[in-house]
Design goal:
Helix content is about 50%, strand content about 5%. It is globular. The strands form two sheets. It has a five-stranded mixed sheet, with helices on both faces. Strands 4-8-7 form a three-stranded antiparallel sheet. The protein has about 375 residues and is of the alpha+beta class. The protein has one domain: Orthogonal Bundle (Cytochrome p450), CATH 1.10.630.10. It contains 15 helices and eight strands.
Length: about 375
C-alpha cells in the first residue's frame, strides 16, 4: 500500500475499508486506522506497550552520538514508559500541568499572543510559523518551568534540532551541529532544575517527583519537545485550514466564541501527531488480525479523526460541528497531560488573529512537512 507522508489520508481511507489491520511497509508496522480499533489498542497498555512509541526515521551517526554522550540521559520518559514507571513520571507532570495551573498562565499566554500579532504591524505579509507559531508555545513552556526568558530561544532551537536529528536526513556536519544544540538545551535544563527543587509549579513538581528516579533531564527535554512542537504544529494547521475555507475564517471572525470548536475541529481534521506506535507484549488479535508478541502497530490518530463511523462528513472542515470525541490528544493511560495547555494556546492565538487581523488570507500555497510527528505547514505566508 502506497503511503505518502505529506498526505497520508488516502492511505488511511483504504486501510479503514480493508478488513482487519493493514501492514504498511513504509511504516514497518500494522496500521490501526479505525476510531474504534485505535481506542481499543490505546486503552490496553498491558497488551500494547509504549516502549517504541516514537521510532526514528534517521539514526544519528557516531559523531553526533558522541556529542550527546556529554550530557545527562536516561529512561523512563513519560512517552515510552509503561506501568509503574509511567505512573511515576506522569504524575508530577500532570500536577504541574493541571487545569488550575494552566488557567493561571492564561494572562501570560494572552499577552504574548497579542504582542506577537502586534509585531506584524507595518509588514502586511509575514511567515506565521516563524513569527508566531514557533515562538509562543516555547515561551509558554519556559514560563511554566520558570526559566529565564533569555534562555528560552536556545531551548526552542534545541527542541527543533532534537527533532531534526531523528526525523530529518542531514550531513555529518549538520548532525553534529544539531547535537550540540541539543546538548546545550540539556545543560540549560539541568542547571535550571538544580535550583528548582523547592519551587512551586511545573519544574518543582518534576524535580521532586522524577529526580529520585534519575531521569529528570530526559523528561524535561521530552516536555520541551512535546510541550511546544505539537502546539506549534496545531497552530499552523488550524490557521491553514481556516484560511483555505474563507467562509470558515469569516465565521470565526464574526463569532469568536467558536474558537474552542475551531481548535477541536483542527485537531480532529488534521492532527499534529498523526499517530504513535505500540508493540504487542503477547499474541493479540486487534480488529481480528492475529499478531504475534513483538509485532508493531501504528495507531493513527489522523486516520481515526476521518473515520465516517465516528464522524459525520469526516473529510469536511467545519467549525460548527457538534462536539465529538476524537483521539488527537491520545486516549487512555497515555492521553496527553498537556492537552488543556495546548488547547488554550491555539484558542487564544485564533481569537487574537481573528480580532486583530480579520482580513488575514494566504499569500502563498502552503506545503506540508512530510512528517507524521508534528505535521504542519513548512511555511505559512499570510497577508491582510
Amino acid at each position: 500500500m502506497d503511503f505518502d507522508r505529506s498526505d497520508p489520508y488516502p492511505c488511511y481511507a483504504r486501510a479503514r475499508e480493508a478488513p482487519g489491520l493493514t501492514f504498511v511497509p513504509e511504516l514497518d508496522a500494522w496500521l490501526v486506522a479505525r476510531h474504534a480499533d485505535a481506542r481499543a489498542v490505546l486503552r490496553d497498555p498491558e497488551a500494547f506497550s509504549s516502549a517504541n512509541a516514537l521510532k526514528p526515521d534517521v539514526v544519528p551517526g557516531p559523531e553526533a552520538v558522541e556529542v550527546l554522550r556529554s550530557v545527562p540521559a536516561g529512561r523512563p520518559v513519560v512517552l515510552t514508559a509503561d506501568g509503574d514507571d509511567h505512573r511515576r513520571v506522569r504524575e508530577p507532570l500532570s500536577r504541574g500541568l493541571s487545569p488550575k495551573r494552566v488557567e493561571a498562565a492564561i494572562p501570560f499566554i494572552t499577552r504574548r499572543a497579542e504582542e506577537l500579532v502586534a509585531s506584524f504591524a507595518g509588514d502586511h505579509r509575514v511567515e506565521l510559523m516563524g513569527r508566531c507559531a514557533r515562538v509562543l508555545p516555547g515561551e509558554v513552556i519556559g514560563h511554566l518551568l520558570g526559566l529565564d526568558p533569555a534562555d528560552v530561544p536556545d531551548l526552542i532551537e534545541g527542541s527543533h534540532r532534537a527533532e531534526d536529528l531523528v526525523f530529518r536526513r542531514m550531513s555529518t556536519a549538520e548532525q553534529v551541529a544539531a547535537a550540540r544544540a541539543v546538548a546545550g538545551m540539556k545543560r540549560l535544563l539541568d542547571a535550571h532544575a538544580r535550583g528548582s527543587a523547592g519551587a512551586d509549579g511545573l519544574c518543582g513538581e518534576m524535580v521532586r517527583g522524577i529526580e529520585p528516579h534519575g531521569t529528570l533531564v530526559s523528561n524535561l527535554q521530552n516536555l520541551m519537545l512535546a510541550g511546544h512542537l505539537t502546539t506549534t504544529a496545531l497552530i499552523g494547521t488550524a490557521v491553514l485550514h481556516l484560511l483555505r475555507d474563507r467562509e470558515q475564517w469569516e465565521l470565526l471572525c464574526a463569532r469568536p466564541e467558536l474558537a474552542p470548536a475551531a481548535v477541536e475541529e483542527a485537531a480532529r481534521y488534521d492532527t499534529a501527531i498523526q499517530g504513535l506506535r505500540r508493540v504487542a507484549t503477547r499474541p493479540v488479535a486487534p480488529a481480528g488480525t492475529e499478531l504475534p508478541a513483538g509485532a508493531e502497530v501504528f495507531v493513527a490518530f489522523g486516520a481515526a479523526g476521518r473515520d465516517p463511523d465516528a464522524h459525520e462528513r469526516p473529510d469536511e472542515f467545519d467549525i460548527t460541528r457538534a462536539p465529538a470525541r476524537h483521539l488527537a490528544f491520545g486516549h487512555g493511560a497515555h492521553a496527553c497531560p498537556g492537552a488543556h495547555l495546548a488547547r488554550a494556546q491555539v484558542r487564544i492565538t485564533l481569537e487574537t488573529l481573528a480580532r486583530e487581523l480579520p482580513g488575514l488570507r494566504l499569500a502563498e500555497p502552503a506545503e506540508m512537512e512530510p512528517s507524521l510527528i508534528h505535521r504542519s505547514p513548512k511555511e505559512l505566508v499570510v497577508t491582510w
